[in-house]
Structure prediction request, 267 residues.
Amino acid sequence: SPLEDRFAVGSGARLLSICYFDPEHNWWVSKHIKKPIRSTILCVDWHPSNHLVAIGSCDFKCRVFCSALKELGDKPQTSNWMPKLNKFGTLLAEFDTNNGWVHGVQFSPSGNQLAWVAHDSSVNVVNSANLTKVHTVLTSNLPYSCLLWMSESSFAAAGFNYCPDLYTVTADGVTFTAKMDVKKEKSGGGAAMSAMARFQKLDVQGQSETGGTTVDTTHENCITEIRALSRNPATGAVSKFSTSGKDGRLVIWNFDALSSSLGGLKI
Prediction:
């Protein structure tokens, strides 16, 4: 959690465990949130206030719960997410995706917005000022599995397309901005390869072409995690982030370098 005094665990038992340390018994204790979760929990994220938690699950739902613990002396404040004080485990909001498991969910830096990605290749954002209006974009990409808010008005999503993509959020909705992985230039090959080079390649490697078996992205398999590494002290925007995937790679991305290579990209 933001205050590092508790942690949340989602499971296939259709429940969310909020765990905290009990100094009296010198032991970690968990309290469960069960209803109305109907399937495996795939992702969890904490609200900056430390008293709310969002989850995504295999029942195509994204939910927000009150996670304030009286055992820790929590005194939550009312907000658009929680207009009145509620007890632990109260369902505060529930959002339905089209036809996909919710792979990733995250609150914006201010906590006023919530974004999630689902297996139907959708990207969804809702503002707490109007919980009935969900902005959804059905992309033509393979599904995303994780996301990271780069600033209060933009976030990056990554997954089965091997590449982090940047989206911009406005009052009118969500729009795709750019792919954040610049294609790698390959030396030789293609139309520029001479007939002599082709025969030499065939003789040495036993094959004439490698096209179709390689990818032009830094990651070569699904990206499973994206994390912020550093932020701009003045604006709070992410300046450096990392991605890890099923290809066994951990990649660190410098947004300033990406911005210059992509023609002045901004968040």
User: Anything to note?
Assistant: Residues 195-205 form the longest helix (11 residues). The mean pLDDT is 90. Helices lie at 195-205, 255-261. The radius of gyration is 22 Å.
